[in-house]
Write a structure and sequence with these properties.
The chain is mostly helical. It has helices spanning 37-56, 66-81, 95-100, 102-111, 123-141, 145-148, 150-162, 164-170, 176-196, 199-213, 219-244, 260-268, 270-292, 300-318, 326-334, 336-351, 356-373, 383-404, 409-433, 452-466, 484-487, 515-522, and strands at residues 7-8, 11-12, 474-476, 494-496, 507-511, 526-529, 538-541, 544-551. The strands form two sheets. Strands 3, 4, 5, 6, 7 and 8 form a six-stranded mixed beta sheet that branches. A two-stranded antiparallel sheet has the order 1-2.
């Protein structure tokens, strides 16, 4: 896609004939030295280590969000009972559950009955799957070196590695991190297919697209924007050349340039291209059908996959409705280094569209923001969809600075250091200090479970250990209780009633709004186990507080 000229040690690179296994070199400006290959390798390793440290450190720290608890419930049923049926009312696809079930299934095979209670399903292991996809997304960025340039690629990957939102959601057991991995996977695979003519990349791109649609119903928005961005990129470049005119080359006869897509077809061969497309379509259909039908056990899932778009359309008009500018506010507040640098990068490439991929990235990023701004439904985790292409175009901006500075690494290093220091501070503050702080500045903390809930869970586990262990009965009367089903997944006598009712179980969990009824009905039989809060309650999330009662001894 991009016109590329590469230099090393300040010398102009020689033009080379296309080789099937070699892509064009990185778009480094003529006369600007690239960094040594050893420095590139060390930088890649360092960035991946930073990304891994931020995503893996104390993965159990943050209590599960409501949605994580629901997803965990689906996973528990899939692992323990082998039961999963796609339900369009659940809105999201099955890939998260099947990928997350791999570790428990392996544990089940290796340890059998000895692993009966947990099967390796812990908060750490279920969140490990999003972590791995988050790291994979950073890793995919390095494959764009030929398109963004060495400095641009390293900058983009580093900004993504420390992005507060990318880290926060990589530590979250929801679909978003997988979703953006598959989206970027489509882009990278498509580029590699165009560069190498190798059908394997087309198949990989098709698999990424299939898994994208099997992950979340918003896939049609992302794919639609990718296609529009691709078309707009080439239309804009054509208009730009038409308006600005081609550079003159006096005294030099110019050979007619062949259409790059025509050249692509000629070099690959029409028959090979058609066969590759057919195989890609088969892979796409097979993977979608396999996941939505629970690997051919639930045929209705295939038909239900189409119903989800109608349901999601209604949800998009009524739930989580925010002003149309909300995403810009969220980005500026929590992703400032990436967002504002990306704006500069977009302006540079629009004014002078030398790099086709950078122009595509700008149109992809801001086109996606525009598309989601038009939808009433707005949640912070959708911001991650924008962060990926924004990081790419931000990286391009820093590559341009590097080129204009004649390869002066110090200048770029100083700029990157400022951006990364801000990003790291915000990331640590959000992910390890204020992870449940619902103040407006922490935009990713959205109706999140408060850390006090873990005290409730700890107290329940301690009381149960003194009574009947995992068979200790727990009655939950509060209408709001997620993600407690995840934390109490190994208790065999847990009832979720959502309203006041009779109970003889050793433990009762109610809402503070039910306290008067609790005292009236159970005051003589149960005593309250108070928390550290002044009212003795445990905060589940903003506006929801729970109270714990234990049956008095001998009653």
């Amino acid at each position: 896609m991009a016109s590329t000229v590469s230099t090393k040690s300040g010398k102009k690179a020689k033009a080379h004939k296309f080789a099937p296994d070699k892509a064009p070199a990185a778009p480094v400006a003529v006369g600007v030295p690239d960094i040594p290959e050893r420095a590139w390798q060390i930088s890649v390793l360092a960035i991946m280590l930073i990304a891994a440290a931020l995503r893996l450190y104390d993965l159990n720290l943050v209590p599960l969000h409501h949605d994580e608890g629901v997803n965990g419930n689906f996973l528990v049923r899939l692992v323990r009972d082998g039961a999963y049926q796609y339900d369009p009312e659940n809105y999201h696809g099955p890939t998260l559950y099947y990928f997350s079930a791999i570790i428990p299934w392996i544990t089940k095979v290796l340890f059998g009955d000895a692993a009966r209670d947990n099967y390796g399903m812990t908060t750490f292991t279920i969140r490990l799957i999003p972590v791995l996809f988050g790291l994979g997304t950073v890793g995919l960025v390095f494959m764009l070196r030929r398109r963004l340039g060495t400095i641009g690629t390293l900058s983009a990957a580093l900004m993504l590695a420390v992005s507060p939102g990318a880290v926060y959601l990589s530590r979250y057991f929801i679909h978003e991190t997988q979703f953006v991995f598959f989206t970027l996977g489509i882009v990278v695979a498509a580029l590699r297919f165009y560069e190498t003519r190798n059908p394997t990349y087309l198949i990989l791109g098709s698999a990424s697209a299939a898994l994208l649609f099997a992950t979340k119903e918003t896939a049609f928005v992302s794919v639609g924007v990718l296609l529009i961005a691709f078309g707009s990129t080439h239309v804009y470049r054509w208009l730009y050349r038409s308006v600005m005119g081609q550079p003159s080359h006096k005294g030099r006869k110019q050979a007619p340039q062949q259409n790059p897509f025509r050249r692509f077809i000629d070099e690959m061969g029409t028959a090979n291209l058609v066969l590759s497309i057919v195989l890609a379509v088969i892979v796409f259909i097979f993977l979608n059908v396999a996941f939505y039908t629970s690997f051919f056990k639930h045929s209705q899932g295939f038909y239900d996959a189409f119903k989800t778009f109608e349901i999601w359309k209604k949800t998009g008009e009524t739930a989580h409705v925010h002003p149309w500018t909300q995403y810009v506010v969220w980005l500026a507040s929590q992703e400032g280094p990436i967002f504002f640098t990306a704006i500069i990068g977009a302006a540079l490439v629009v004014l002078k569209p030398k790099n086709t991929f950078a122009l595509f990235s700008a149109l992809w990023a801001f086109g996606l923001i525009a598309a989601y701004m038009l939808i009433g439904y707005k949640t912070p985790w959708l911001v991650l969809n924008f962060v990926i292409p924004l990081a790419l175009i931000a990286g391009y901006a820093l590559q341009v600075v590097y080129d204009l500075a004649g390869g002066q690494v110090r200048i770029v290093a100083m700029l990157i250091s400022i951006l990364i220091v801000v990003g790291v501070y915000q990331s640590i503050d959000l992910n390890f200090v204020n992870y449940d702080n619902d103040k407006p500045k922490y935009v990713y903390v959205y109706a999140h479970t408060k850390r006090g809930l873990l005290d409730l869970v700890k107290n329940v586990e301690q009381i149960a250990a003194e009574k009947e262990g995992a068979t200790t009965g727990i009655t939950i009367l509060s209408p709001d209780y997620w993600p407690l089903p995840w934390y109490f997944r190994n208790f065999t006598r847990t009832g979720y009633y959502g309203r006041m009712g009779p109970s003889t179980e050793p433990l009762i969990i109610a809402n503070v709004n039910q306290k008067d009824e609790m005292e009236q009905n159970f005051g003589h039989l149960y005593r309250q186990v108070v928390s550290k809060d002044p009212d003795g309650a445990y905060e589940l999330r903003p506006g929801v507080r729970l109270i714990l009662y234990v049956r008095r001894e001998g009653l």
